[in-house]
Design a protein that fits this description.
The complex is a heterodimer of chains A (270) and B (307). With 270 residues, chain A is mostly helical. Chain A has 10 helices and no strands. In chain B, helix 9 runs antiparallel to helix 10. Classes of the chains: A mainly alpha (270), B mainly alpha (307).
């Protein structure tokens, strides 16, 4: 299982690097080979316009990696400072954040993304914005809950007693202790974002054709399922592998990093 | 009980108001002027002014909001730009299909989760348990829009048992419902299994054994009902996933429900219709969550004390 995981994730990152370093023939149309099954000329066959599926899969996976990493990073950059700040400040700020996160969470995430991209217009940028808007909440709540328990830790109290300024306190004494649980949260969120991003692409709201995307390839492939099942099967299998391996990565990270969370019960749920 | 009920209802209505306002503000996100979107570029300025006045756009935002809420109270969600028919009628036409799909998916989910979860817990650590846990992991990871084509390939083309799409036959609901229900079934199976394993060693099950209850009776009569409470909670949360999953599933199987309507509306940039669909799905989600909380309170008397 671990080998599969390493292979998939490694392949994903390699695909991303390869796409940025050398141009893949994603738009090379060969009219003679429309819907050709996997064979000697191309590893995974050709799609409905005669483009090589393997190259498009690599490029699609690379774009999806970039988008998903961007969404998770942005979510973290928005959520973590808000969560830490609201836990340290407390009072009205804290209640405002709770209210905000409750509101965002009262709406199913992907529906929010569909609504936003539907209104703002489909496309990669809007999809990223929409996914970030529903994604930061998880980080904010986690950072807040963890900071609430850390606030009363001896070293934080000591730093505060020594007159440590709040920003310094948050950056030097609280944040380093949050990193491991944030890493776990990030890997969990990554799996969700991969699914959400490819779902948006499948619905025609994410990356727009002719740019290759895994979700878009499933959409097109589903139309040719009867004559050329390989067109739909290859992106489906790639997506399945990606989601499974990111999920496994999350589980592994949790087992390795999150020792403390098992010891201290999640506090600060008020 | 009544104070908990009141508390929960008040919170739910506040949330509903927030969702309303969010959907109202969503329309303000449309790039450009709504009048221009409706009439197209280069429209007659007089006509534009008339439409802006008819839509109440020259009023301040809070007046517009209040009118919007008033109209919603009469179930008036405006008219679809594309068809010119009222949004509530269009939605009402599509609701039965989605309800049928969601109902069938829920049925399949419960059937799979309860039976597989119980079997896995009874065979803890053995082959059957591992198989079930493994497939639950797979079912949890696969996105709806990937499972759909796979099921079509398997059930419609290879086996030829079910139609590819549409809702012309009674058994055409099977594949979409399976697609929609699998993720939830996987999650619930894990939950039922874990809870059963926990409850199986509780004192009251031991007491039942001492009174001479057999393993099946202990499991079904004593352990299962007590393992179900977290399942009910999760069930409520998952209905949100079910509703949004319906958007994807209906698209794959050409199922004429609310989800397909939403996507058609987005494709045609029919803004009032998009608002109506989002509002319907969002408020359904809120209502189901409320009902779940109330059901939990009714099932477990300890909950009101905690609140």
């Amino acid at each position: 299982m671990k080998y599969l995981l390493t292979a998939t994730l490694g392949g994903w990152i390699l695909a991303a690097l390869a796409t940025w370093l050398l141009p893949l023939p994603v738009d090379a149309i060969d009219l003679q080979r429309i819907l050709d099954p996997p064979g000697s000329s191309a590893l995974l066959g050709y799609d409905e316009l005669g483009r090589p599926i393997s190259a498009r899969l690599l490029a699609g996976a690379a774009t999806s990696l970039a988008v998903c990493l961007l969404v998770v990073t942005l979510s973290m950059l928005i959520g973590v400072p808000l969560g830490v700040a609201s836990a340290l400040l407390g009072g009205v700020w804290d209640r405002a954040l709770i209210f905000l996160t409750d509101t965002v969470m009262s709406f199913p995430g992907i529906l929010l993304a569909i609504a936003l991209t539907g209104m703002l217009g489909p496309g990669l940028v809007n999809a990223t914005i929409a996914l970030t808007i529903s994604g930061w909440v998880g980080f904010a709540r986690l950072a807040r809950a963890q900071t609430l328990t850390l606030r009363h830790a001896t070293h934080v109290q000591a730093a505060r007693a020594l007159g440590c300024p709040p920003v310094h306190l948050a950056l030097r004494h609280v944040l380093p202790l949050l990193l491991s649980s944030l890493a776990v949260q990030a890997s969990c969120e990554l799996a969700g974002v991969i699914i959400a991003e490819s779902t948006l692409a499948f619905l025609g709201l994410g990356i727009q054709p002719p740019a290759p995307s895994l979700g878009g390839m499933v959409l097109v492939g589903a139309r040719y399922m009867l004559v050329a099942p390989h067109v739909v099967l290859s992106p489906v299998l790639v997506l399945l592998l990606l989601v499974l391996s990111v999920n496994l990565l999350g589980d592994l990270l949790r087992d390795h990093l999150d020792v403390r969370q098992r010891l201290s019960a999640p506090a600060g749920t008020n | 009980m009544s104070s908990y009920l009141f508390h929960r209802m008040a919170a739910a209505s506040l949330m509903l108001l927030l969702v309303l306002s969010a959907v109202f503000l969503l329309a303000r996100l449309i790039p450009g002027d709504p009048v221009e979107v409706m009439l197209g570029e280069g429209a007659d300025p007089v006509e534009r002014q008339l439409l802006a006045r008819a839509m109440g756009l020259e009023q301040p935002l809070y007046v517009q909001w209040w009118r919007y809420v008033q109209r919603l109270a009469r179930l008036d969600m405006g008219q679809s730009i594309h068809t010119g028919r009222s949004v509530s009628t269009l939605l009402a036409e599509r609701i039965p299909a989605t309800l049928l799909l969601a109902g069938a998916a829920l049925g399949i989910t419960l059937l799979l989760a309860l039976s597989l979860g119980t079997v896995a817990a009874l065979n803890h650590g053995r082959l059957a348990d591992r198989l079930i846990v493994g497939s639950a992991m797979l079912g949890l990871g696969i996105p709806n829009f990937c499972l759909g084509p796979l099921l079509i390939l398997l059930g419609a083309f290879l086996l030829g048992w079910f139609p590819v799409g549409g809702m012309d036959h009674p058994h055409s609901v099977v594949l979409p419902a399976l697609t929609l229900g699998t993720g939830m079934a996987a999650l619930l199976t894990r939950m039922v299994r874990a809870n059963l394993l926990e409850v199986m060693h509780a004192d009251f099950v031991g007491a039942a054994m001492a009174r001479g209850a057999g393993p099946v009776r202990r499991m079904l009569w004593h352990a299962l009902p007590n393992a179900l409470l977290p399942v009910v909670t999760l069930f409520g949360l998952q209905v949100g996933a079910l509703l949004t999953g319906a958007v994807v599933t209906e698209q794959i199987f050409a199922w004429p429900g609310v989800g397909q309507l939403t996507l058609e509306a987005i494709g045609k940039r029919d803004y009032p219709l998009i608002q109506g669909c989002i509002l319907l799905i969002g408020s359904c989600f809120l209502c189901v969550n409320l009902l779940t909380d109330l059901a939990c309170a009714a099932l477990d008397p300890r909950i009101q004390l905690a609140d």
